[in-house]
Amino acid sequence: MTGYRLAFARRALPLGPDQSARVLPWVLALLVYVAGLGGIGLIVFGDSLRAAEDALVTTLTLQVPAEASTARLETVLALLRQTHGIVSVHLLEPAQTARLLEPWLGRSVSLDDLPVPRLIDLRIDPKGDTDIAALRRQLASVVPEARLDDHRGWPQGAHAAARRIRGILAAGITIALLLVALSAVFSVRAALMVQRPAVELLHVLGAADTDVAREFAIRSLRLGLLGGVIGAAAVLFTILALSGAGSIVQLPAQSGNSGAAAGGITDWRVWGALGGVASAAGLIAMASAWAAVKRRLASMP
Amino acid sequence: MAVVELEHVGKRSATGTPIIADVSLTLEAGAFYFLTGASGAGKTTLLQLITLVERPSGGRLRLLGADTATLDRDARAALRRRIGIVFQDAWLLDELSAADNVALPLRIAGAPEHEIGDNVAELLAWVGLAGRENARAGTLSGGERQRVAIARAVVGRPELLIADEPSGKGGEEIALLLVRLFERINRLGTTVLIATDDIGFARQFEHRRFHLNEGRLLDASAASAQ
After folding, report:
1. Which residues on chain A are in Cβ contact (under 8 Å) with B109?
2. Containing domain of residue A242, as a range?
3. Where are the beta strands (DSSP E) in chain A?
């Protein structure tokens, strides 16, 4: 008999039909749908935030008063070009500045009559460790009224808000996955009640707890994966539908891809998130079933 | 060599009422025994202790050379696989075929399918159910169910075979047939213990008898039965 246990050709222990197999995949599909949308939301939000941060953190605008002389303007430009960490200096031509002001002033107003400051667009290396305070002091010594707009102040606040939003999305995903575990436990408990005569007989005939638990765990894994695949497919359809309906969802890979829906779903992270959530549903259902059955069997002598 | 040794074993119900008390009993390897006693005397409880379906409330139980009090769950399961049990009501899984019911102990033991098929067919023929392999257990008659249960009990070549009222309500003719089957198994070296409340029936045979009365194994009864 010992030799039998070493044999590899095994058939599953006979448990009867499982009524929960009808309902559980759909419950898990709904939860995977919620978790999957949350995962995609995290990706989209993270990308959008990163893009905004990159734009804000690397851009400074210097306003030089209109009355500043050309010589002082040249000195300022020279100073900026020599400053460590500044990678580009671009003096906007009056025509460019006029275009920027057009929405507020209209086309009929001549800027020649207005004291419009000269704008200098600066790009800095985000890792360049530029000393903005020292730059301000140096600029003030050349043109006291010059104003350097540093946009890097408010992303700190945005970071806190972003953390909260990420936290909410992550909490949603976590709750959905916890509900997957709970659903699997309730389902396997119901199955254990229905299968009680078979389980007790297997126990009495010498089935090890792990052998019986494995049967339920494998069954739950299958149901969990089925629910996961259905839920993940529903998320994909949702993304395609929303992308097709006027780019409501701007998926990461779509940037620079004129909003083609396929651009989003070819992003490996989307597949990674959906595959991860679907797999997690299967594995969580399996582990929950395993634990629930082992606990139930432990009550048998 | 003793297959089963009970020393002052007792079992109480969940409410604390003694079901069996201070039972000492030794079953020798290869022997054939009857356990008699009226309904409610504690026979089934004693068998449940021996088959590790229940744990004793007190005393010491050694089974197939192992002290059962010190065994972990896997070791208890492994020990159960060395025991064949015929339950009073057969206890088959009705949705399975007769062959699949018989194959249960082998599947639990992880036997390869080709070995299972050969053994099961042979045993079903041996208990007189050749050709009924694929019949669902739920469609079998009482006598057929009991024979499937016997085939299941012996398919794993157990060292100890326990039968609790194996004839059920089948009458003396079926009971006699089953005892003859058990005797053939016993001749192959398996220790057999049959519980019955029909003391007169047990007395027809030359086998040693133990008698339970209100949870106590009466020494005088056991001695006189020898």
Report:
1. 1, 4-5, 206
2. 17-53+162-298
3. 59-64, 86-91, 118-124, 147-150
- Judging contacts by C-beta atoms under 8 Å, the chain B residues touching residue A294 are none
Residue B79's pLDDT band, with cuts at 50, 70 and 90, is very high
Task: Report A:115-174 residues touching B (Cβ under 8 A).
Answer: none
Of A10, A198, A206, nearest to B105 by CB-CB distance is A206
Work out how many domains chain B is built from and give that number: 1
Across the interface, do B78 and A197 touch by the CB < 8 Å criterion? no
Interface pTM (ipTM) of the complex?
A: 0.88
Per-residue pLDDT tens over the stretch A25-35: 999 999 999 99
What's the distance, CA B142 to chain centroid?
18
Taking an 8 Å cut-off on Cβ atoms, the answer to whether B109 and A202 are in contact is no
Give B54's contacts in chain A (Cβ within 8 Å): 301
Instruction: Give the pLDDT confidence score for residue B152 in this predicted structure.
Output: 93
- Examine the domain organization and report whether A228 and A273 are in the same domain: yes
Q: Quick one: closest CA in B to A200, which residue?
A: B53
**Is residue A156 a part of any domain in this protein?**
no
CA angle B140, B144, B147 (to 5 degrees): 140
Interface test with A, best of B73, B108, B115 (most A CBs within 10 A): B108
pTM over 0.80: no
Shortest CA distance to A59 belongs to which of A167, A185, A153, A144?
Answer: A153
Let me know if residue A155 belongs to a domain: no
Distance CA A284, CA A154 (A): 41
For A191, B116, B225, the CA distances from A281, given in Å and listed in that order, are 19, 36, 63
Indicate yes or no: CB of B74 within 8 angstroms of CB of A202: no
- Please indicate, yes or no, if residue A73 is contained in any of the structural domains: yes
A53-99: pLDDT as tens digits: 777 778 888 888 888 888 888 898 988 888 888 888 898 888 888 88
